[in-house]
C-alpha cells in the first residue's frame, strides 16, 4: 500500500570543508560529513560547539561561509523540527499541520488528517494549540513536518523541552515514523542516550570540527538502560567530559 | 464605656454559633459573584441616591436635576427629533474621523512594522508629531477650516491616529521571530507569511490600540463640538448651558458615556471573536 521505496525515499548528502563564521567567530572549521540516503544520524556535542549551526546549513536555513554541501538528486527540501513546537497559536491544529504541505501543497485535508493520525492526535484536529500539552504540541509539529513526506527531516533538539516520560514516548514515535517513511534524519541533541537510542551513527562535534564518528549497529528497537547502550554511552561521555576546558579547582 | 470595646473573641464565637447565617452569607457571596446584574448594582444605587437627593432638595435643581427630569427631557428631545438628529451627526463625525485617522495609522503601522525602509523614512517624523497634544491644534484648525465639518474630522482623525499607529507597529514588530522562521522554512510567500503569521500575531496589540483610540475619539469630538459646531451632542450641551437647561447638559454627558460604552463593547465583542485562540480572550473568560 505504501508507494514509497524504503531504499530510495531519503536523500543523501555530502559535506566538504564546511566553514561558518559569525563575524570574528569561527563556529564551524572545516566539516567533512557524508550522510547516506535514509540514514538516521545524531549530532552531539557541548553547548556552542556548532552542532545547531551545522544542522541549519544542512537544512538550508543558513548559508555556509565556505565549503560545499551536495544533496542527492530530486526534491531536497528539508523539514525542520525545533525545540519549540512553533505552532501558530491562532490556527487550529489541523490548519497548522496543513502548513507543512508548503506553498504548492495547498489545502489537502485528507493528508493532514492522515498525518495527525500517525501521531495519534486525530481527536485534536479542531483544538487550539494553546490547549495542548507540551508533548502534544511537539507531536503536531512532527505531523506538520511529515505531512509533505519529506526526504530529509532535520531535528534540532526537538525533545529537549519535554518531561522524561513524554520524551521516551516521543523517541518511540520518532523511530516508528522514521522506520515507516525512511527519510533521512539528522538529529541534533545533547542527550547522549537519546542519540544512541535512535541513530545509526553518532557524530560528535567539538570546537567546530568532527571529533568522533561512530556507527551504532545495535538492533532496534533499542531499550533504555540496556548494557550495550550503557557501555557506549560511557565511552562517549568520557570523551565529551575529557575534552572539557580545564576547570580551576 | 467598656461595653463599646470591640471584643474579637466574642465576635468570632458569635459567628461560630450561627453556622446557618454564615452559610447563607456564602451563598449570597456566590450569587453576587456570578450574577450578570452585579456590575449594574452600583450604578443603580448611585442613581437612586441621586434621585432621592434631588427630590429632598439636598441637591439643587440648578446644579444637578433629578434623573427623572433628565429622562423627561430625553423623551421631549426624542419626540422633537432633535436628539436623534444630534446623535446621528456626532456618531457620523466620530466614525468618519476614526475611519480616516485609524485607517491611515493602520496602514502606516503595518508598513513601518514590516519594512525597515518605511520605518526609517517616516517613524521619526511621526514620533515628533505625536508629541503635539491634538487639542492644542484647535485654534489653528479653526483658522484653517472655520467651524465646518473638516475641523472636527481633522481633530478626531489626528487624535485617533497615534494609538492605532503605535500599537499596530509594535504588534507587528513583536510577532515571534521563530514563527516567521518556521513560515519561511515551509516555503510561505511574503504575502502568505503576512496574512497567516504577522497580521494574526499583531492583532491583540492592534485591538488595544483601537480601544484606546475610541476613548480619544469621543474626547476629541466632545471638545471640538463644544467649541465650534452648529449641531451634534456637544453643540446641544453648549446651547442648553446658555439657556440654563441643566437637564439637557446632563443628558448630553450621559449620551457620551453611553456611546463610549457601546463602542467599547462592540470592539470587545469583535476582539473575543477574532482572538478566540488567545488564552485571555477565549470562551469562559470575561
Structural overview:
- The complex is a heterodimer of chains A (249) and B (286).
- Chain A is α/β, with parallel strands linked by helices and 249 residues long.
- Chain A has eight helices and nine strands.
- In chain A, the strands form two sheets. Chain A has a six-stranded mixed sheet with strand order 5-6-7-3-8-9, with helices on both faces.
- Chain A starts with 12 loop residues before the first strand and ends in a 7-residue tail after the last helix.
- Chain B has a single domain, classed as Orthogonal Bundle (MetI-like fold).
- The interface between A and B is medium-sized, with 22 and 22 residues.
Provide the fold topology.
The complex is a heterodimer of chains A (249) and B (286).
Chain A: E1 13-22, E2 25-35, E3 40-44, H1 51-58, E4 66-71, E5 78-81, H2 93-99, H3 102-105, H4 109-118, H5 134-146, E6 152-156, H6 164-181, E7 184-188, H7 192-198, E8 201-206, E9 209-215, H8 227-242
Parallel strand pairs in A: 3-7, 3-8, 5-6, 6-7
Antiparallel strand pairs in A: 1-2, 1-4, 8-9
Chain B: H1 8-17, H2 19-34, H3 38-55, H4 67-80, H5 82-114, H6 116-130, H7 138-145, H8 149-173, H9 177-185, H10 190-227, H11 233-242, H12 246-274
Helix pairs in contact in B: 4-12, 5-6, 5-8, 5-10, 5-11, 7-8, 8-10, 10-11, 10-12, 11-12
Please provide a brief summary of the model:
The complex is a heterodimer of chains A (249) and B (286). Chain A has 249 residues and is an alpha/beta fold.
Q: Key features?
A:
heterodimer, A: 249 residues, alpha/beta, six-stranded mixed β-sheet, three-stranded antiparallel β-sheet, 9 strands, 33% helix, globular, disordered N terminus, B: 286 residues, mainly alpha, MetI-like fold, 12 helices
Q: What is the succession of H and E elements of chain B?
A: HHHHHHHHHHHH
Strand portion of chain B, in percent?
Answer: under 5%
How much helix, percentage-wise, in residues of chain A? 25-40%
The largest pleated sheet of chain A is described as: 6 strands, mixed
Reading the helices and strands of chain A in chain order gives EEEHEEHHHHEHEHEEH
Report how far apart the termini of chain A are. 62 Å
Rg from Cα of chain A = 18 Å
Oligomer description = heterodimer
Q: What is the spatial order of strands in the main beta sheet of chain A?
A: 5-6-7-3-8-9
**Main beta sheet strand tally, sense and closure of chain B:** none
CATH homologous superfamily assignment of chain B: MetI-like
Uncertain residue segments of chain A: 1-6
Shape of chain B: flat
